[in-house]
Amino acid sequence: MKILVYLDLQDGVPTALSRELVAGARRLAGQGGSIELALIGGDADAARNLGASRVFTSTPSPYDPVAHGAYLQGIVADNGFDLIVFGCTTSGLDLAPVLAFRNDLPLLSYCTAVRISGGTVEADSQIYGGKLVSTAEASMPAVLLVNAGTFSEENGSQAENAEIIQLPDRPQSSVRLLSANRPDPNAVDITKASRLLCVGRGIGEQDVIEEAREVADLMGGEIVGSRPIIDAGWLPKERQVGKSGRKVKPQLYLALGVSGAPEHIEGMGGAGTIVAINTDAGAPIFDHAHFGAAVDVADFLPAFKEALARKVG
Ligand SMILES: Cc1cc2nc3c(=O)[nH]c(=O)nc-3n(C[C@H](O)[C@H](O)[C@H](O)COP(=O)(O)OP(=O)(O)OC[C@H]3O[C@@H](n4cnc5c(N)ncnc54)[C@H](O)[C@@H]3O)c2cc1C
Question: Is residue 178 part of a domain?
Fold first, then answer.
């Protein structure tokens, strides 16, 4: 089996999601399979040690959907792959459907699990904003758009023997990049935290954030929020979990005053252990929680903080 992974880049090097996809592709390809990477417009050396046999690369340049689409079309037409894997990111969502359409290939999107059986690929996909999971199969070759957190990144570097294939000159493009806004380098990456404390609208007042932050610290984790908390400006955007925020998969997710709307669950439904505190025993969050209590955050938070402080201190 031969798999091409398109690498999303940040500052020219593959993102954590890209590394997850490469690790997942390696597992899917199995013994004797081969992984090749498309690292377009970045530093090919950064992908040399990811364990692929070849890395297709171009001269460094900003992201451009037209040029990247043309590069990918050339790579696929010249080499032929059983699977072409993209992350479910802005660029993946730009490129994967176009590539599938141009080559008349099936496209499985928003994948949260992928299985191979003979010449068929089967995937679980989040649909209706994460409300439902559909399972679909397609005969290969096929294109996949995979959600963050579906595969886990491997530790350490893999073999350093990838052959670098330099692509020809940049294809013509009608797109001109005017500006790019970089994420704040000091911003916390909540996708890396193993414990998250999430505050939802049920906390009632902004003052509660400070106490919740202290509890998150005592837990050895990070504070995050549902969208209303971010919209209110009580926490920065980089701490939003959900459909329009970050997708997280911590070992522990403590949700305080979060109702469990599908758009929120889409971002954290895969957490290892979910604990919910909500006054409404019928709140949907309890359908996803492993543990929960129908109590008031105002009662829970100080008591939990005291118990944690005793344990930690
Ligand atoms: C396109 C789109 C994208 C979206 N993206 C996101 C996203 O990325 N992330 C996200 O979170 N949402 C997102 N949403 C919004 C989502 O639909 C919900 O509106 C939102 O998740 C609700 O946030 P919440 O649970 O904090 O608030 P609410 O739904 O208002 O829930 C508050 C909960 O707190 C409980 N409560 C109230 N008082 C207390 C108390 N004293 N103690 C304990 N519990 C209490 C209530 O019973 C209730 O269940 C999106 C929506 C759309 C349409």
Answer: no
End-to-end CA distance of the chain: 54
Of 191, 227, 230, 304, the one to substitute when testing ligand 1's pocket (max ligand atoms within 8 A of C-beta) is 227
Q: Which residue blocks in the chain are alpha helix, DSSP H?
A: 16-29, 65-79, 90-103, 208-219, 227-231, 262-268, 285-288, 297-312
Structural domain boundaries, residue 201? 190-312
Q: How far is the CA of 303 from the centre of ligand 1 (A)?
A: 24
In a domain, 129, yes or no: yes
- Among 166, 201, 223, the domain-final residue is 166
User: 160-203: per-residue pLDDT in tens?
Assistant: 688 999 998 878 889 888 887 777 777 888 988 999 999 999 99
Residue 179 placed within a domain:
no
Top mutation candidate among 131, 239, 241, 244 for ligand 1, by most atoms within 8 Å of CB: 244
Q: Are residues 129 and 7 in the same domain?
A: yes
Residue nearest to atom 14 of ligand 1 (CA): 263
Question: 161 C-alpha vs ligand 1 centroid, how far in Å?
Answer: 48
For the chain, how many structural domains are there in total?
2
For residues 243 and 267, what is the distance between their CA atoms, to the nearest angstrom?
6
What is the pLDDT at residue 268? 93
pLDDT digits (tens, 9 = 90+) for 252-293: 999 999 999 988 998 898 899 999 999 999 999 999 999 999
